[in-house]
Design goal:
Number of strands: 0
Helix content: 40-55%
Strand content: under 5%
Low-confidence stretches: 1-9
Shape: globular
Bound molecules: zinc ion
Mean pLDDT: 90
Radius of gyration: 16 Å
Number of helices: 10
Largest sheet: none
């Protein structure tokens, strides 16, 4: 699929060959299929393959894997549960712009098209003027958790302390 100019923007996916109805079942037992479909979109595929930055890893280490995964549904409900508003598409930071703001959930949102109500409408067919259903929140949390499990494989189960990243040179070096 051809993509251009996706950087920093949420855009609709032009690929009509995907099995939309299967994706839109929001079936937590069919995550692998949905993930394979997401990876056909360039920007999503990037997030499934790039190495998360140290800020995001540290966030996960400080929270611990169990609490991180447990907190996903609450995160989804708070961040994209309400209907679309004027800030839609601008809430999730990008690692190359504000690397220090990244956490595992934000990487996962870009990877799973749960970054905003516009992308959720495009991919999952959910009307943006409606609050997300419990089924949708459960599904998106499972999808995000699958990303976290795959892309943050070395998190400790329980919280550990990590020194702050405060050196500006380090910030430059870790920006992709
Ligand atoms: Zn989006």
């Amino acid at each position: 699929m051809k993509r251009e100019g996706t950087e920093g923007a949420c855009r609709s996916c032009g690929d009509r060959s995907l099995e939309w109805s299967r994706i839109r079942n929001l079936d937590v037992d069919d995550l692998a299929f949905v993930i394979a479909a997401l990876r056909t979109e360039y920007i999503r595929a990037q997030f499934w393959s790039i190495e998360p930055n140290q800020w995001a890893k540290n966030y996960g280490i400080r929270k611990g894997r169990i609490a991180l995964l447990d907190g996903t549904a609450v995160f989804v409900r708070k961040r994209v549960g309400p209907p679309k508003d004027a800030f839609d598409g601008r809430r999730v930071p990008w690692p190359h712009k504000t690397p220090e703001k990244m956490n595992p959930y934000f990487y996962a949102q870009h990877a799973t098209a749960t970054c905003c109500r516009t992308c959720i409408e495009t991919w999952y067919g959910i009307a943006p003027e409606q609050s997300l259903s419990n089924q949708a929140i459960t599904f998106f949390a499972a999808l995000i958790n699958q990303f976290v499990i795959e892309r943050f494989p070395e998190l400790p189960d329980y919280p550990q302390s990590v020194p702050q990243i405060r050196d500006s040179l380090q910030i430059q070096l870790q920006s992709p």
